[in-house]
Amino acid sequence: MTGDWDDLTARIRACVLCKDLVASRNTVVPGEPGMFTRRLAVVGEAPGAQEDAAGRPFVGLSGQLLDQLLADAGLARHETAVLSAIKCRPPGNRTPRAAEVDNCRPWLAAQLDLLNPRLIVALGLTAATWFLGPRTTLAGVRGVVHEVDGRSVVATYHPSAAIRFGPNGKPLAALRDDLALAARLLGDAL
């Protein structure tokens, strides 16, 4: 898989379909396959400023929280593929536009085809709608397993929402519960 992943990553890094994103990005953030021991993929929205600077997904505050919550659930980031719906940072950290998500759709689809995860956790509304469609609401879809194109998907809040609403907010509790659900599902499948 390493050679195939490296080839796919090189093709993603060469993408110039989204002119606004190409003009404002520092780097493309294709994602990381991890050791992929448990065949879990987490899919976020888009790189933020720190990810754009580092070229790696989830390295800022949201990434630190994600790492902690994964560990709390008995999951390890180094065993997890960490991907995003789009691979370039939107200017001003705005929500990705539908056309940008559509342009990146083949890249994420190719990554998922290559990795063939047992379970996907979609973090945030952009990632959830990538899998579940445009009328998705997180409140309406989180906490259950959805079958999408033969893959199991759990949709939940993005770590940035958990940070924004604080330690007593609903997004953090939901994210914690949904990662625990993912750990149980992966444990049942072993």
CATH class: Alpha Beta
Quantity of strands, as a count: 5
The span between the termini is 21 Å
H-E string: HHEHHEHEHHEEHH
Number of helices: 9
Low-confidence stretches: none
The spatial strand order of the largest sheet comes to 2-1-3-5-4
Q: Could you say what the CATH topology is called?
A: Uracil-DNA Glycosylase, subunit E
Strand content: 5-15%
Taking all Cα atoms into account, the compactness measure Rg is: 15 Å
The general outline is: globular
> What is the multimeric organization of the chains shown?
single chain
User: Structural class of the secondary structure composition?
Assistant: alpha/beta
Describe the structure.
Belongs to the uracil-DNA glycosylase (UDG) superfamily. Type 4 (UDGa) family. It is an enzyme of class 3 (hydrolase). Keywords: 4Fe-4S, DNA damage, DNA repair, Hydrolase, Iron, Iron-sulfur, Metal-binding, Nucleotidyltransferase, Transferase. This is Type-4 uracil-DNA glycosylase. GO terms for molecular function: 4 iron, 4 sulfur cluster binding; metal ion binding; nucleotidyltransferase activity; uracil DNA N-glycosylase activity. With 190 residues, the chain is α/β, with parallel strands linked by helices. The protein has a single domain, classed as Uracil-DNA glycosylase-like domain (Uracil-DNA Glycosylase, subunit E, 3-Layer(aba) Sandwich), CATH 3.40.470.10. It has 9 helices and 5 strands. It has helices at 2-13, 19-24, 49-54, 61-72, 98-115, 125-132, 138-141, 159-165, 170-189; strands at 40-44, 80-84, 119-123, 146-148, 151-156. A 5-stranded mixed β-sheet has the order 2-1-3-5-4, sandwiched between helices. Helix 1 (2-13) runs antiparallel to helix 5 and helix 8 (159-165) runs antiparallel to helix 9 (170-189). The longest helix has 20 residues, at 170-189. It is globular.
